[in-house]
Amino acid sequence: MTLEMEHWDENRYMELNTYFRIKIQGMVDSDPYIRDLRKSEDGLQLADLINRMSDSDQELWKEFIKLDRIKLHLDMQNHLEGKGTPYTLRHGFGSASSDADDSPSPW
Hints:
Blueprint lengths: L9 H21 L1 H8 L6 H7 L2 H26 L27
Helix pairs in contact: 1-2, 1-4
C-alpha cells in the first residue's frame, strides 16, 4: 500500500461528500450567477461552482478530491482482485442495494 493509501479515511470522505452534496445543491438553487450559467450555451461546469465557493470550502474541496482519488484507486484495485462491490454501469462501484437503505451513498 502506498503512503497516499495510508491516508484513506472513509468517515471523512463520507462527511465531505455529504457536505458538498448539500453545498452544491444550495448553490444551484440559490445563486443567480449559477442559475444563469445553467441556462447559458456553455452550461454549468464544476469549476464554476468551485470558483464561487469560499476559500475555506475550496480547501475542503481539495481534501475531498484527494480522498476521492484514493477511494477510486481502492475500488479499482478491489475490483481487479475480485473483492468488494463489483463495478456496474448503473451504480459504479456503489452497492445496488444502497437505494433501499437509509445510509447516504456517495456521488
